[in-house]
Amino acid sequence: MTKPNFQQMPLEQLKAYILEHRNDDEAFHIYIDRRRAQSPNQLPMTIEEAEAELQRRFGQQAS
After folding, report:
1. Contact 6, 21 (CB under 8 A)
2. Using N-to-C axis directions, what is the helix angle for 11-20 and 25-38, rounded to 10°?
3. Residue 17 burial class via C-beta count within 10 angstroms: exposed 0-12, middle 13-18, buried 19 and up
4. Is this model's pTM higher than 0.85 or not?
């Protein structure tokens, strides 16, 4: 079986492929690299931001 061309695959299709082939490390790494390339200046969340986001999401589910 030939692997798909992950570099040419649309990002959403690549994400779906990864969800179906969770052990394919090559596809996962390409997905992460491509996502980072889209948002190179994105900073990780701080603890406070993560807690606020969890509170926001948890609050929405409780309603």
Report:
1. no
2. 150
3. middle
4. no
Residue 15 backbone dihedrals phi, psi, to 5 degrees: -60, -45
Q: Residue 9 has what DSSP assignment?
A: S
Phi then psi dihedrals of residue 48, to 5 deg: -65, -40
Rounded distance, CA 43 to CA 54, Å? Answer: 18
Helix H or strand E encompassing 55: helix 47-62
Contact assessment for residue 40 and residue 63, using Cβ atoms and an 8 Å cutoff: no
| Tens digit of each residue's pLDDT (9 = 90 or more) over 12-57 | 999 999 999 999 999 999 999 998 888 777 777 889 998 998 899 8
